[in-house]
UniProtKB/TrEMBL annotation, chains A, B:
Hydrolase is among the record's keywords: yes
Coiled coil (residue ranges): none
Species: Seongchinamella unica
Quaternary data: Homodimer.
Record text on activity regulation: Requires K(+) for maximal activity.
InterPro entries the UniProt entry points to: PPase-energised_H-pump
Keywords associated with the record: Cell membrane, Hydrolase, Ion transport, Magnesium, Membrane, Potassium, Sodium, Sodium transport, Translocase, Transmembrane, Transmembrane helix, Transport
Protein name, as recorded: Putative K(+)-stimulated pyrophosphate-energized sodium pump
Record's function text: Sodium pump that utilizes the energy of pyrophosphate hydrolysis as the driving force for Na(+) movement across the membrane.
EC category name: translocase
Entry keyword annotation includes RNA-binding: no
Transmembrane feature ranges: 6-25, 58-77, 83-106, 127-154, 166-187, 246-263, 269-293, 314-330, 336-356, 377-410, 422-442, 486-504, 545-564, 641-660, 708-727
Site feature (Determinant of potassium dependence) residues: 481
């Protein structure tokens, strides 16, 4: 790369990974607590590793098979890039590696957090948050590092040319790296989501409802599976999801930058490098922000939250302040416009996070109204939760819509006709939103660690003052989890939008490759021409909403989002049912379990969740992969674009609805447990427990899985663009 | 009209209305039963009329206000047609008139059906079905008749010209008639939906769950409100919904026909008349089909269903057979293509009906799996129902997608570039689907009559053999209601698609009106030109999915569908809560009510439902009306089209999901009550009752209200097209 500041990106990746190692070693040195605590920690770690091992074994087969297929397509038909098999494998590998490191860290950290909470709250927070930071920095460090690596390799191996299309070709080829990351994210998010909720729902249904034992009680055979599930779903799943958004947005932005500035070589290099530079800058400032997160003994919820917010907000604000400077050094074209796009992305992320918190926190009206409705029974609590969740989609959508339009206009220099540069602005907004992922993911990953620390404290019978501390940490984790979920959805939406825009670029490249020239429709005839602008191209492929193929494909996309959600929901229902049967069986076979005299068979429950997760994710995965393939073949390019737009718009709104309904039910239950509407054990509480259980798969399986769906379908469409083009011609 | 066969339409309308009167008088002559039965019937009728009176009073104000506003816009700014105030009022009036006749019929018929069921099942079926036919024929008769009337008036009053655009102007002006019908449908569907479920949920929560008295027990103060609600929601609401789809599809098809054949005057007249002729033909054959519905004493569910199916299928098949003949006499251009579109519409309607039945009937796997999941508790029953409902969206979407593509290709003579004629085909498919509305609506409206007959029999303490007969009739009604709901959604989707296509035509007309010529974008400049084809036009307004305004507006549309559903759901929750408080109050104030010694205050509950319905429909109505207005002003034509497509695709899928989940829970509960999974009173039954109650607002309020949303937003967009165009320029 001829842009010196580009090297900020690999340097930042190295710094991030370095600090991840430092924090990891620091955590490893902490006290592991009592033998009981060690034993429970070991159980959870063994369960988590057993799951990962099984998932990676399956992945190995799927990835090998697909890589061979891609190799055949690439070297046989010439419809695919020859780099595809390698970048694809690499994307999957690094995402999996980040997931493995994250799981190791999380399962080692939770026991140590509980042990530290025995002496003080700030020490517990420090261990849990720094361990979260290991996960956050590993994800961004590996993501940015490998993206840089592939850009350099493919740039170096592509023959030099003066032609502005060279960098377009390079960047769109690098983008296939996202495909591997996306497929691995599918396994991690869908499988992990099914695992965690099968265990959770199953444990609750028999434990809490039938046997009347509290949550995290060691007599419950599914309790270890439940704790494993928190790691599998919220650490590995969330991490893989954001790994993909992170790489996807950076690579899509660089591809769109290459496409937008084909006629100005120096501007093109700047535009291609900018996303990497923003990401590198954000990574460094995330590390700085992490050091700002600390608190004093006896801090209340407000103070803990402020401690986290201080770190995140400082990172975001300094990115905003520093980026114009960096752009100036880079000779960025449209400096302030691109800065506006970065700002639009960062602000959109914050607004969505706030909106999610408003919709799901018990301090606000929506969740309280659900708690009040629970007084009239489970049915009204459920109706109220569904209604509240649907209403809560308004703000996030308005935020994304406003953010996208502003980023577009800003990127386009306020000329709406300047579509290519405007779309680059949208992709840059996604990069901006994700630039401080290092620290936002640290806050997210902190949640399951604190949650498991609480579980460990409960199971090893630590004293009430320790439980109070872990409860404070856990409750903070619930808030960050809600915000994090909103952030994951919002960044997925922006990333998917950037990917859809990139799809169009790739189609144009394919046309160039196939015909060695751009084709244009003039007076009903296809005319070859050296250059054609995007509008002509659109006309040729007729991607207007007037084309019935586009119109019905939007319907198809909306349907795919719903069917995909239905599948994941049913999967949890079925898997939880198996768990219920097993837990009932164990209780019946050995009365000593409930009496507390004999240890239940935790491993069996872990195995059930693991097997169910692997089996149940097949159908939704197939849907996500085959839908864009089938539409590519059957309806061509206009169909694919309709499908992607329909799935993205409906999928985004549906994901917000599902996540927020689930989150609100969860917190309405906790609000009642805190003594409102009759408190624990009242009729309202029983109703709220049902709401919470229904919400579990909504908020932790179906909702988050939609993030993957919208991105994966776009990236698959990009990969098989050659197919769609050859059909459309 | 110079096409002689056009007169088939008014003739058929007259025949339909005539038979409606005959059937009505026949029903009036039947025995009303015992004094107790009369008293209950009078209660329900009084409640229904009180509701209608109040709704019409509000409508009077809203319609007068809007008509004045339209008059000011039309005569002041010239942005609107001067006919708009009149056609608007007329559309609202005739829809309301059809609703009034339907409610009179239904409330008079249910007591008589119960009375007839004392002597025999076939007599009960005959009265209930013929009364349903009164409603069906009134809706189609008034709809077709008034549409014909306005076409003739506006055609006559428009100065003659050779120009092909004259008929386009005439037909798009007549289309504003739909606007009044649509707004009245909003009030009827949303208000009716809230009314019926507030009463139903409220009655169930206290009566069934708390007091342990059965459904339709006269001791329940909300029981009359519940029975009134069946009429208000399923007769008046469903009728107004389909009245609008019926008129909307006919008028949109004629407008698109006029636009597609501007250059061939004789073909244009045929194309404009064809939708009316198809509707007239279907109406006549519906009347014939109605006479085929009869059964023998002791018939089982299968036989009853076959009796209904015989009528409906015969009508549909004869329409298919007769229409080519009619088209031949009319000198229809592209005769077989248009016939193909009619066939595509009819088949799509049948497939959606079947799919709905499969998704919601207890004879099939989905509903049974919900019943099985209820064994593990309410939470799993709910998860399973939500999942099943989401999965069930696949088939209806595939049906609509296939039907639309086939209708398009067929209408376009298998030339995909022939967009105008193809869109005409899509609209004709909607007309085809709705052509036999006379008999399909008869089957739908039969449902609430049979339901109320059962309620009447229960409340007046008729013997078990009579209850068995009314139960058989009611159970048949549940099946037809499910099919009918699917049909209503499917026809709304096709109608809305036709309306969106018409919107584009209206925009084009507006451009002609504003600038006296078509404007075209060439090399970045706006160039005036005499004629421009649709593709140029699309390019100018940039309705490609690449335009970020279009893209984000699709998001907005998806969000509006969800928020609208959330609002209606919350409305039911709140209104039901009030009902619960009132019923509890009555039980507490007078213990004689539960003992059966004193009569509860039915009127108070009716008033609560009525007031709640009127109050709670304000917010969703405002959303439906303001969203297209706001987007027209803020984002112009590309924004409006994105909004409509987003709302339609998401709204359609969401409506199917909500209706099917609700229907499946309802039937899962009935399946358990029939003795499976422990039967009535078991834990599974209690779980299923919660599912059923949650499903009530989903299937009877939020789901059906979405039908109106998608149509109303399109028709409002059409009405304010002038505004959007002037902004876009």
């Amino acid at each position: 790369m001829t842009e010196p500041l580009f090297w900020l990106a690999p340097a930042a990746a190295a710094v991030g990974l370095g600090f991840a190692l430092v924090f990891f070693l620091e955590m490893r040195r902490q006290d592991e607590g009592t033998p009981a605590m060690r034993r429970i920690g070991a159980h959870v770690r063994a369960g988590a590793m057993a799951y990962l091992k099984r998932q990676y074994r399956i992945m190995l087969w799927v990835f090998t098979g697909l890589a061979l297929l891609f190799a055949v397509l690439a070297f046989g038909t010439g419809l695919q890039s020859r780099w595809l098999p390698l970048t694809f494998l690499c994307g999957g590998f690094f995402s999996a590696l980040a997931g493995y490191c994250g799981m190791q860290t999380a399962t080692l950290a939770s026991g140590r957090t509980a042990a530290a909470a025995r002496s003080s709250l700030p020490r517990g927070l420090r261990i849990a948050f720094r361990s979260g930071a290991v996960i956050g920095l590993t994800v961004v460090g590996l993501g940015l590092g490998s993206a840089v690596f592939w850009l350099l390799v493919i740039d170096w191996s592509t023959p030099p040319a003066e032609d502005g299309h060279r960098l377009v070709l390079v960047t769109t080829t690098v983008l296939t790296f996202s495909m591997g990351a996306s497929l691995q994210a599918l396994f991690a998010r869908v499988g992990g989501g099914i695992y965690t909720k099968a265990a959770d729902v199953g444990a609750d249904l028999v434990g809490k409802v039938e046997a009347g034992i509290p949550e995290d009680d060691p007599r419950n055979p599914a309790v270890i599976a439940d704790n494993v599930g928190d790691n599998v779903g919220d650490v590995a799943g969330m991490g893989a999801d954001l790994f993909e958004s992170y790489c996807g947005s950076i690579l899509a932005a660089s591809a769109l930058g290459a496409a937008a500035y084909t006629t100005a070589p120096q501007d093109q290099v700047s535009a291609v490098c900018a996303p990497f530079v923003i990401a590198g800058l954000g990574l460094l400032l995330s590390v700085a922000g992490i050091f700002l997160v600390r608190t004093r003994e006896g801090a209340d919820q407000e103070e803990l939250l402020r401690a986290l917010a201080r770190g995140t907000n400082t990172s975001a604000a300094t990115v905003l302040l520093a980026s114009p400077l960096v752009f100036y050094w880079m000779d960025m074209p449209n400096l302030w416009g691109i800065w506006g796009a970065v700002a639009a992305g960062l602000v959109t992320g914050v607004v969505i996070g706030r909106a999610t918190e408003h919709a799901t926190s018990a301090s606000h009206a929506p969740t309280r109204s659900i708690a009040a409705a629970a007084e009239e029974g489970a049915a009204t609590a459920l109706i109220s939760g569904l209604g509240t969740g649907m209403l809560s989609t308004a703000l996030p959508v308005l935020a994304v819509v406003t953010g996208t339009l502003l980023a577009f206009l800003s990127g386009a220099g306020f000329d709406p006709g300047n579509i290519s540069e405007g779309l680059y602005g949208v992709a840059v907004a996604a990069v901006g939103m994700l630039s401080t992922l290092g620290i936002t993911l640290a806050s997210d990953a902190y949640g399951p660690i604190a949650d498991n620390a609480g579980g460990n404290a409960e199971m090893s019978g630590l004293g009430p003052e320790v439980r109070a501390r872990t409860d404070a940490l856990d409750s903070l984790g619930n808030t960050t989890a809600a915000t994090g979920k909103g952030f994951a959805i919002g960044s997925a939406a922006l990333t998917a939008m950037a990917l859809i825009a990139t799809y169009l670029e790739v189609v144009r490249i394919e046309l160039l490759r196939v015909g060695q020239h751009m084709l244009e429709l003039r007076d009903g005839l296809i005319v070859a021409t050296g250059q054609a602008d995007l509008a002509d191209f659109m006309l040729y492929f007729n991607v207007t909403l007037l084309n019935p193929v586009v119109l019905v494909s939007v319907f198809l996309g909306a349907m795919v989002a719903f069917v995909f959600s239905g599948m994941t929901m049913q999967a949890v229902g079925r898997a939880a049912g198996q768990m219920v049967i097993e837990v009932r069986r164990q209780f019946a076979a050995d009365p000593g379990i409930l009496a507390g005299s004999s240890e239940p068979d935790y491993t069996r429950c872990v195995e059930i969740s693991t097997a169910a997760a692997q089996r149940e994710m097949i159908a939704p995965s197939l849907l996500a992969v085959t839908a864009p393939l089938a539409v590519s073949v059957l309806l061509g390019v206009p169909g694919v674009i309709g499908l992607l737009v329909g799935a993205l718009s409906t999928g985004f709104v549906l994901a917000v609805f599902l996540s927020n309904s689930g989150g609100a039910w969860d917190n309405a239950k906790k609000y009642i447990e805190a003594g409102h509407h009759g408190g624990k054990g009242s009729a309202a509480h029983r109703a709220a427990v049902i709401g919470d259980t229904v919400g579990d798969p909504l908020k932790d399986t179906s909702g988050p899985s939609l993030n993957i769906l919208v991105k994966l379908m776009s990236i698959i469409a990009i990969t098989v663009a050659g197919l769609a083009v050859s059909w459309s011609l």
